[in-house]
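User: Before I run my own analysis I want an independent prediction to cross-check against. Here's the chain; please return only the structure tokens and, at the end, one sentence I can use as a sanity check.
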Amino acid sequence: MKVIVAEKCGFCHGVKNAISIAEKVLALEDDVYSLGSIIHNKDMVERLAQAGLKTVSQVEQIQSGTVLIRSHGAAPQQIAKLKEKGVNIVDATCVLVKRVQHIAEEFERDGYKVVIIGDENHPEIQAVMGCVKDAVVIADESDLHKLPEDARLGIVCQTTQSPEHFGRMLGAIGRCRFKELKVINTLCEEAIKRQQSAVQLCKQVDVMFVLGGMESANTRRLADLCKKENSETFHLQNWNGLDRKAIFGKDIAGVTAGASTPEWIIDEFVKNLEAIDSSGG
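Assistant: Structure tokens:
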């Protein structure tokens, strides 16, 4: 089977940095924790767990050792609790996520109501929310009622959202009542490049595969965008998730991957897919 891999896919700089930091710390320390999954990819998290990384969900589960702050960041209150415990803190937060946190803090200091466009349950957004006293999170138009009327609004966006969604939400917010609107584009350029590359490729193939963790927001975004252009789009964590029926009768397959998907997952998938005679299912 002919397989074409998207020009832009796989690990972004922020994820590469977080994994590199984790590997270096694990090589030097025995008691290493990650406050939440260091990235949203189970395969990579399991590989790091085998090297000794212990993933926990609460600060209270950590008593000693070294703590990695994951790529999505952590709220200042969590950092403060860790410092009280006297543990060694190693910050692997993506620099772009840090930027969103700083902008939100500046907005609040300047008297703006902080508005975050994104998923309230995503760890990146929860960390940003923890940086300010009070923020409003807007996922879509159904959340617009949360906005205070006649307020000064300072708007940022979850880094992995699509430019289309960001623009659409800005338009919807612009139709609400407000005194002042200040917007700073906090989208990740690498995420945008991956989205554009994936959409371009999915239009040229019979079937499209998007590789990455099911809990990865940027991977889900890739899959959603591709499905709009090619209904034969499948989001898989890795090769084990492939249903052969998806490629039956197909000649050309496209492959892309989220920013938290390791290269070895992509390579294995492409190699196995190329070896298949799709006419035989």
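Sanity check: The domain at 96-183 is CATH 3.40.1010.20 (Cobalt-precorrin-4 Transmethylase; domain 1).
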